[in-house]
Design brief:
A hairpin with a 5-residue loop joins β7 and β8. Helix content is 12%, strand content 29%. The two termini are 28 Å apart. The chain has two domains: 25-114 and 151-173, no CATH class; 194-402, Jelly Rolls. The chain is built from three helices and 21 strands. It has a six-stranded mixed sheet with strand order 9-10-14-19-16-17. The chain is an alpha+beta fold.
């Protein structure tokens, strides 16, 4: 039985399809490929063993070739024929061992080298077909079934050792598997906001300037507010000025920003709808006088320009400007609302032409941004709570409908 890995919804890429990770190699392995393979392959082996079928079933997991030992400009690994690997178990295999060894960077074999034809010879051998068997084509010309030799180090009827290596990986690097494009969309998972990290693969929400990290010289901060009623639970995110340090005067220059952002898990070609439940918060007077008059709120879908993964150095793929209404909470007066509004940005990412490539580049992300867009410097006097104003984000949603590949359309 031959089982191929399937393409996910919207996979029209040539730079990152299935296991062909020419871009975002580490993210794709960590978020998508390895969790599915680890669970699926382990379950198959265990099931065959429990049913008493493993001793007569050969299970081979193999790709076409290896991947380059060096990472390319998109964080990917390209085709590499010098070294590859496979996993084999079941009938006639001496398990619990690694056969072969490469150099320190995984670029060249240095011990117990075997060739692809040796794998096919091993498979034929275990099927009871000699590796030197001949067959004739339609012109009666004889051919060997393989040019290889069975890998003797792999053959046996028991494990190579009873000792087991303790797992030493960091399980925190592999979050629970999910098909959702965004994590912690309601901010209720108990996870903190991360500082905006350049050159790192942060999983979850990043923010800048982060209130828990330092005081912003421009007076703007992003903070996770806990133990406060929100549309989704007891947490929301506030982007603005004032708040916990509302007594101090602030000066906010033109162009100053507060950013809440997250990289999408496994982006593909298709229709993306990014939305937030948001409202104005803080002092109603300060919100009307300062926030609405001097700041612009926007939703953004973007492509990272390079592996630094800095939203401030990205290509905008879609943007939606919005203006939230002030939410008064339990009490309200005329013109005020007690519930957040939902604002959305919908954008098709990809091409409309057949199976044309959609490049994810160094990754796709979304962001909620407030920016001081009025000219000059905004001077806000000191006064506890009198000048606190912010955009309150109660929850985030991202809906995705993948582009169909030719041949899948009905």
């Amino acid at each position: 039985m031959h089982v191929n890995w399937v393409r996910e919804e919207g996979d029209n890429a040539v730079d990152n399809p299935m296991w062909d990770t020419h871009a975002k190699n580490a993210d794709r392995l960590q978020d998508v490929l390895c969790p599915q393979f680890d669970i699926g392959y382990t379950a198959l082996i265990n099931d065959l063993d429990q049913r008493g079928l493993l001793d007569e079933t050969l299970v081979v997991a193999v790709g076409e070739f290896g991947r380059t030992p060096k990472i390319n400009a998109k964080g990917g690994r390209d085709h590499w024929g010098n070294v590859s690997n496979f996993v084999i178990a079941g009938a006639g295999i001496q398990t619990a061992q690694v056969v072969g060894r490469t150099d320190a960077i995984g670029g060249e074999p240095v011990a117990d080298r075997v060739a692809p034809q040796d794998l096919t010879a091993t498979i034929f051998h275990l099927l009871g077909i000699g590796h030197d068997t001949l067959f004739r084509d339609r012109a009666e010309i004889p051919h060997h079934v393989t040019q290889g030799t069975p890998i003797s180090l792999l053959l046996g009827d028991r494990p190579a050792t009873d000792q087991r290596q303790k797992a030493e990986g960091d399980i925190s690097l592999v979050p629970s598997y999910t098909t959702e494009k965004l994590r912690n969309t309601s901010f209720e998972d108990g996870l903190p906001l991360h500082p905006l990290a350049v050159g790192k693969r942060i999983k979850g929400w990043q923010a800048a300037p982060l209130a828990a990290d330092h005081k912003s010289p421009a007076g703007l901060t992003v903070r996770l507010v806990e133990n406060a009623a929100s549309a989704a639970g007891k947490r929301h995110v506030a982007l603005g000025f004032g708040g916990e340090d509302a007594a101090a005067a602030v000066s906010i220059p033109h162009g100053a920003q507060a950013i809440l952002t997250q990289e999408l898990r496994n982006p593909r070609s298709g229709q993306f709808t990014f939305s937030v439940a948001a409202s104005g918060g803080g002092s109603s007077a300060a919100f009307e006088k300062f926030f609405l008059q001097h700041f612009t709120c926007r939703l953004t879908i973007f492509r990272y320009s390079n592996v630094k993964k800095d939203v401030r150095e990205s290509q905008r793929l879609g943007v939606q400007i919005f203006q939230p209404a002030y939410a008064a909470g339990e009490t309200k007066v005329a013109g005020e609302t007690s519930a957040p509004q939902r604002f959305e940005l919908s954008e098709f990412l990809g091409t409309r032409q057949g199976n044309a490539n959609f490049s994810i580049g160094a990754g796709i992300g979304v962001a909620v941004i407030i920016e001081k867009t009025s000219p000059g410097v905004l001077q806000i006097p000191a006064g506890k709570d009198a000048h606190a104003a912010f955009l309150r984000v109660d929850d985030v949603q991202l809906d995705f409908v993948g582009k169909q590949r030719l041949g899948n359309q009905k």
